[in-house]
From TrEMBL:
<feature type="transmembrane region" description="Helical">
    <location>
        <begin position="283"/>
        <end position="305"/>
    </location>
</feature>
<protein>
    <submittedName>
        <fullName>TerC family protein</fullName>
    </submittedName>
</protein>
<feature type="transmembrane region" description="Helical">
    <location>
        <begin position="229"/>
        <end position="250"/>
    </location>
</feature>
<keyword id="KW-0472">Membrane</keyword>
<feature type="transmembrane region" description="Helical">
    <location>
        <begin position="6"/>
        <end position="23"/>
    </location>
</feature>
<dbReference type="InterPro" id="IPR005496">
    <property type="entry name" value="Integral_membrane_TerC"/>
</dbReference>
<dbReference type="InterPro" id="IPR022369">
    <property type="entry name" value="Integral_membrane_TerC_rswitch"/>
</dbReference>
<feature type="transmembrane region" description="Helical">
    <location>
        <begin position="138"/>
        <end position="155"/>
    </location>
</feature>
<feature type="transmembrane region" description="Helical">
    <location>
        <begin position="35"/>
        <end position="57"/>
    </location>
</feature>
<feature type="transmembrane region" description="Helical">
    <location>
        <begin position="257"/>
        <end position="277"/>
    </location>
</feature>
<comment type="similarity">
    <text>Belongs to the TerC family.</text>
</comment>
<keyword id="KW-1133">Transmembrane helix</keyword>
<feature type="transmembrane region" description="Helical">
    <location>
        <begin position="200"/>
        <end position="223"/>
    </location>
</feature>
<keyword id="KW-0812">Transmembrane</keyword>
<feature type="transmembrane region" description="Helical">
    <location>
        <begin position="110"/>
        <end position="132"/>
    </location>
</feature>
<dbReference type="GO" id="GO:0016020">
    <property type="term" value="C:membrane"/>
</dbReference>
<feature type="transmembrane region" description="Helical">
    <location>
        <begin position="77"/>
        <end position="98"/>
    </location>
</feature>
Amino acid sequence: MSAIWIGFFCFVAILLFLDLFVLNRKDHVPRTSEALKWTAMWTTIGLGFSGFVYLAYGNGWVDSELTANQAVINYLTGYLVELSLSMDNVFVIALIFAYFRVPAMYQHRVLFWGILGAIFFRLIMILAGVYLLDRFDWMFYVFGLLLLYSALKMTKDAEDVPPSENPVIKFIKRVVPVTKHYHGNRFWIKKRGVRAATPLFIALMMVETTDVIFAIDSIPAILGITTDSFLVFSSNILAILGLRSLYFVLSRMLDKFAYVKISLALILAFVGIKMILHEVWHAPDWVSLVVIFGLLAGGIAVSLLRPAPVDAPVDPTENPPRP
């Protein structure tokens, strides 16, 4: 592993350490103003990292044929794609927390540990995706069709499937005992001499598996922008690092973004078409950035100007979790 990869992992580890053990040592419910402040901080870090990308690719620290300007544009485009698709993930996480009635003060803890699993699984999926695209040109068409299918599916109302029907959750409940009540912020406890999982751990596993499912859409979408593994991974991870604070902002305003789903579907469709036409259509890198930013901004603007009545998920409370 090259020094730049090791340095990036160290950078992410420092950010996570500061987040959990310094900035958020005590479990609490972030106020909207606090969540906005942290969202601004994570966004600044994500966008500011483009400066490092410029230096790294401009000085040859990364073995790549991309120029510094191309690398920055691809990074920012990938970051924007993952950040926008994370908005859809927020909707699902809000439903999971509401279903399991996760106490609001412990939700940040679940999201934090969910990030660690996301880093591991996304690294594997990104390296596998880059490997396939480098060696099999027809995989561009497979990923393109997958994105078009995902875009079509996103425009339709999904059937509500109870999280308890998730096969991973069923497996956990068969293998280990699960308590019926929360025990503070603990994922595991000892009950009559036997280690038992708490509902907080079940919610964590649900968030984790949901992130993997969403990554099946978001990673091919970023690979449609660039196949540079470092740009794909760094833009992906820095975008989801801000997902926790973004959740506490958007989960309270879900009814205000009714048309964002359409924007996300159009973004997936655009990247899917771009991948399918990769041999005949060679648009400049900045075109993707402008189109994706325009679609996302348009969806947010229409949602704010013409709010549609939607049912927002119930705010999680201190009530006992579902059995």
